[in-house]
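[Q] Does anyone have a clean structure-token version of this?
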Amino acid sequence: DGVGAAEGLADDLAAAVAGLPAQVRRDDEAVAEAARSALRGLLRRALWQKRPVIEVHVMRLER
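[A] Here you go.
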């Protein structure tokens, strides 16, 4: 279903960003590019080789 697919994409996207070195994760542009690239690849496979346009906004939350 759509909810399960969205959760799967979110998990894959989180894993891609978490896999970045700590210093790179501090750079908003690097995080946005890693997220965009990962999401684009995931969607490209799901959409039969189409090239989706992806725009990523990074929002950092204080803990």
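[Q] Thanks! Anything notable?
[A] Helices lie at 2-18, 22-25, 28-46.
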